[in-house]
Every structure is written in C-alpha cells, then in structure tokens.
Amino acid sequence: MATTTSHATNTWINPKLSMPSSKEFGFASNSISLLKNQHNRKSLNINSSLQAPPILHFPKQSSNYQTPKTSTISHPIQENNNSSSISKWNLVQKAAAMALDAVEGALTKHELEHPLPKTADPRVQISGNFAPVPENPVCQSLPVTGKIPKCVQGVYVRNGANPLFEPTAGHHFFDGDGMVHAVQFKNGSASYACRFTETERLVQEKALGRPVFPKAIGELHGHSGIARLMLFYARGLFGLIDHSRGTGVANAGLVYFNNRLLAMSEDDLPYHVKVTPTGDLKTEGRFDFDGQLKSTMIAHPKLDPVSGELFALSYDVIQKPYLKYFRFSKNGEKSNDVEIPVEDPTMMHDFAITEKFVIIPDQQVVFKMSEMIRGGSPVVYDKNKVSRFGILDKYAKDGSDLKWVEVPDCFCFHLWNAWEEPETDEIVVIGSCMTPPDSIFNECDEGLKSVLSEIRLNLKTGKSTRKAIIENPDEQVNLEAGMVNRNKLGRKTQYAYLAIAEPWPKVSGFAKVDLFTGEVEKFIYGDNKYGGEPLFLPRDPNSKEEDDGYILAFVHDEKEWNSELQIVNAMTLKLEATVKLPSRVPYGFHGTFINANDLANQA
Asked: Would I find Chloroplast among this entry's keywords (predicted)?
C-alpha cells in the first residue's frame, strides 16, 4: 500500500561539527542556520513565481508574497555517525579540523552580515516544492486513475537537486545533491522510489556529518569564494577529505547506455545507478568506462538512435584544453579526445548531433576565475563575444576541419535537435534562445525570455539565420526543458515537447510544437499544479507517426501538497492515466525511460 504524506518543518540533516558534539544534529556554535525555524520567520518579499526554479532568474523587483507551506514525509532521520571517521585522525588532523572549522565559522558569519543575492539565498532557491525530500524506499501498487497504456513497461527515472544537509551559507538550486526518482511499470501496476546518488562527495560528507565540499555556484564567488576554496584544499592537504575521487553532485542528466543508467553533472565523471528488480535504486559507483574516461563529462551526452554510439563533451574552467569532444562505441569503447579550440572556458551545458556532424555552441557565458579576485562571480556574460556554433565531423580525429559559424546574440542553454538539409547546404539547429544569457546565475533587472528558435548554419557561405518558430506573438511562451522523439535524434523532426515555463520559473504544462508550421498545442497540468520536463515515450519504435507515443511528467499540486505522475497521449493531448505518488516529488531536471527488456539486461 502507498504510504501517506505528513507535514513537518525539516527534511534535511542539520550539519554537525567535525569533532564529536553533545548535540547529534545541532549546529556548531560557529555555524549559522539560514533556514532554521523557517515557518516562524517573516514572509519573504519575492514574487510568487520566483521560488528556486530549475532555470533560475530572480528580478530585483519584489512584491508581497506569502511563503508557501512546505511538506515532508514523516520519517526518522538516519543519523550519520561521524565518530568512526574522526577516530582515524591523528592529533595533527584533529587540531587542523578544529582550526579550519573555526575559520569557516568566522567566514560564514562574515558572509551573512550582508544580504545574499537571490541566486544564492537558500530561502529563495529551495523554498516551496524546490525544497529537498528524504529518500523513499520502494512503494508498490500505487493508486492509478485511468489506465496505464500497455506499451508503458519499464521505469521512468528523473534526476534532480536535493541537498542532504541544510545550507549554512550561499546555495544555488544547481548545488544540491543528486537524487533520482523512479516509477516502475509492470503489467498496469506502478511503484515509486527515490534515492540519493551516492557520489564520493555525498559519502564523505555523510561520514563527517556536515557539508565540507564547496558549492560551485552558491558559494564560489568573490573573496569569500576564494577563501572557501582554500579551506577545501587545506582539508585535503591534512587528509580530512579526499577530493581526488571527484567533487560532483550527479544531479542533472540521465542516460541509459551500454546496459547502464548513468547519472551526470558536468563537474565530474558519471555515476552508475542500478535499478533493482523491485524498482529500487542502488548506486554502483563512479563510472570511468573501465579506466578510459579521465575527465569530466557534460550532463547531456547524445545517444545516436541508429548507431547506438554515445557522443559527449568535457570542459575545464582552469586549464587548457578548455573543451574536448569524444565518443563511445555502442560497446563502450572510447575514442581519443579531440580538442575544440576556444579562447576562454565556456559554459557548455548542451550540444547537438546530426547524422554526420556534431554541433558545438561557443556562446557568451564564460568562466573567468579572475573575477573572483575582483569580488565578483566567475560566471560572466561576455557582451563583447560573438556567439558561434562549431560544426565537426562526428568521426574526426582532430579539430583541423572544425568550421565555425557566427550566430550573434544567441545563447541556448539547451538544444533540442539538429539535422542536415543537403539541398540548401544547411544544418538546422532547434534550441531555446535565452535572454539575458547569465540570468540563470546572476541577478538582473530584465525579465527572462526563452524563445524556441530555428537556427540555420550555411556550410557553403559560413553565414547563419535565426528565427522564432512560434511567430504569433499571442502564442509566444517561455519554453524550456523537453525533447523530441529520441528515436529520431539527429534527424529531421516535426515535433518538440517542451515545458511551458510560466509563470516563470514554474512549469504549468507542456507544449507540443510543430517545428515546420509553428503551430502550438498546450497541455496544462491543472489548477495550482506545476511540473517539469515532459518525457516523450514512443508507443512503438517502428511507428510511422512521429508523435505516436505518450508524455510522462511529474506534477505537484501546490494547494493539496501532493505529487503525481501524469501520462498523456502525445497525439491527442488527452490525459490517459494519473499515478498517485506516496511522497512529494520536488521540481527537478532531466529524465529518461528504460524499457523492461533493457532493465533485465543491466550490467
């Protein structure tokens, strides 16, 4: 039977001192809680649509807003016993830990003497249904309204950011620990489970009973960010932590490749997560493709539906080469790295493939670590840079034949598809162009827009064109997070299924967009209901109709404070079935579907 949801005030574990404390889950005297007693504090003066979004934009203007109720599952918090880790430390290590903790406490106190920007304020970033939840073991035989389609056999998995420990300083939504939510379907029945991806970072912090790894966006800005980096490496120098095994959170992407489900964020190697026969999730470990992968991999690798190969990028914000391209055969054999020449470390969240080419965006959001010395954020919108797209043969052995085509004033956080049109010597790229480009990370006055666009790259002239696919201004909406039929990735597609990110940054439904005509059909989740990325699941891989399939999406009711999985017919946009979930599912990032046959053949 499904468990029920109850309301409480906290879901995460309060951090502890590195040294034993009389209060198992109390704060150190030199730590400051930002979220403690959040129900008793004054309401935040932020717009109701600005509650820690998946793609974040926080205008400086504010309006009166009542903080929404938060919800948790009634459960005993599993205490993390850090005595075993500390007992292995020698006297020098224990003294170093105490000294570094004192420095960190003083640093945090100093930081909190000044208002945090909304892009780093946890009271904004993880409020409402962006707040974390505890793990939930498998719950079978969930209540279903309607009928689950027969073709839906397997497991839908979706990734998201879910901080284990309550933030004590700056925190951006992207900084949270990775948690995978899974709904397994068997013969018309459904089960649900959610588990943390046991990254090296999470394992070490659980052992210590507190967060010690710096948060890449929420903390690493200005002089305090430099100080936190120095603290981090000092702890490594004394052997208090081990950062040689990765620092990533694995909270963004999911891909099923070579019989493995891989959880990814671009700051680390992927993690192998196994789906058990009962529908539970188990982290197998950090996955380096049998020693072949020695660098990070972005969260959106591309799986070619015809060849079965996986194509990927890796970027480095410190040293050259700043950007590398590589691929894996369908059996998991890695190619040599191909250096992509870029002048500065570039934000590289996504890219695209066609049948013959890989399309690599080099856009205006770059990393400049020197900005931290000047007191700013290392993530910078370079207004003097002209965005461009690189076109490279998928099987190139080096970057000598890379062709760049400039696409001015274009920043696509996500690219939905691309294909070749030989009759015009063009490559067509479909993406959502966002303005301002850096509003995901930095506060700004301008309202964010995300416009679904068609970008044409002419291989013969080296010129580009760009236009909005939805030409009717009355139909124009912010479209972010979604996909095309993945069986046609890299090939010409007629439809895209994208989240309607309105009221920004919430997702009120999804749009089915005809990429040829600009026609838009909308499916709205319901009053006070919001979701995330819509996943398109083909009914039959061999179907002649591109839209013959179903849309799966997690949806949360902000009035009743419960969550569900909706299954929608992609051809008719009619709701086929609703699966009631036993616990709240926070708004998150990207997902995939693993069919029953693939589940049975996991590595």
From this structure: yes
Q: How far is the CA of 179 from the CAs of 133, 134, 263, 301, 470, in angstroms?
A: 9, 9, 9, 19, 34
Alpha carbon distance, N-terminus to C-terminus of the chain:
30
SS (H, E, C) 122-190: HHHHCCHHHCCCCCEEEECCCCEEECCCCCCCEEEEEEEECCCECCCCCCCHHHCCEEEEEEEEECCEE
234: part of which helix (H) or strand (E)?
A: helix 222-237
> Do 11 and 162 touch, CB atoms closer than 8 A?
no
Residue position matching structure tokens 């044409």: 456
Q: Would you say 556 is a known binding-site residue?
A: no
Model confidence over 515-538: pLDDT tens digits? 999 999 999 999 999 999 999 999
Q: Is 172 exposed, middle or buried (0-12, 13-18, 19+ CB in 10 A)?
A: buried
- For residues 473 and 484, give the distance between their C-alpha atoms in angstroms, rounded to a whole number: 23
Q: Any binding-site annotation on 223? A: no
pLDDT in tens, 562-590: 999 999 999 999 999 999 999 999 999 99
Instruction: Report whether pLDDT(471) > 60.
Output: yes
Give the mean model confidence (pLDDT) for residues 132-145.
95
Rounded CA-CA distance 192/181 in Å is 7
CB 86 within 8 A of CB 20: yes
Tokens read off for 486: 């993945």
Residue 42 has pLDDT above 70, yes or no: no
* Residue 456 φ/ψ, nearest 5 degrees: -110, 125
Q: Is 414 annotated as a binding residue?
A: yes
C-alpha to C-alpha distance for 289 and 283, rounded to whole angstroms: 15
Q: CB neighbours of 114 closer than 8 A, spacing ≥ 6?
A: none
* CB-CB contact of 402 with 447 (8 Å): no
Instruction: Provide DSSP, 185-224.
Output: EETTEEEEEEEE---HHHHHHHHHTS--SPPTTTT-SHHH
114 is in an annotated binding site: no
pLDDT at position 72 is: 34
All domains of the chain, ordered by start, with CATH? 88-601 (2.120.10.30)
Give the global pTM: 0.85
